[in-house]
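Morning. Coffee machine broken again, so started the prediction first thing and wrote up yesterday's gels while waiting. Chain of 147 residues, entered below exactly as on the submission form.
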Amino acid sequence: MGDVLARLRREPADAAILLACQLQAGLKLTPGWLQTDPGLALSLLQIGLKLAKEMKGKKVFVSTYVIAFESSQAAMAASKTLASGSVDFRTISAPAAISAGCDIAVEFDAPDPEEVLARIFGAKRDTGLASLYRVADDGACERICAL
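Came back before lunch.
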């Protein structure tokens, strides 16, 4: 639970949304967690409960994305950048359906890939070093854009 508290402190808005989803799913919060940081816990619970009411009956759609790189150097630099932050990602072999300059890719799940792209590429998106794909339920990869 310590990792969760650290993330809650760093990203309270994202944490409140996550908490709202967990409350909506019937998560039971333990008294020990609430005692760790009562002020933070109370604030997040209030925000989470409000969001849970707003989200009731709504689905949050999360997609799987793959960034395929043109060089192993670019892929490793992106992996290193993502590893230093709070983004959950996986370094994978590029799917066979994707044609890229190297066989290393980064895969992540998100409702919107913007946060991950901003972390890796900043404002400059026309580097020619990578492409972004959305992975469909059947495993097919749809190219979204060149990066």
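The beta strands are 63-69, 90-93, 104-110, 130-135, 141-146. Going to sketch it on the whiteboard this afternoon.
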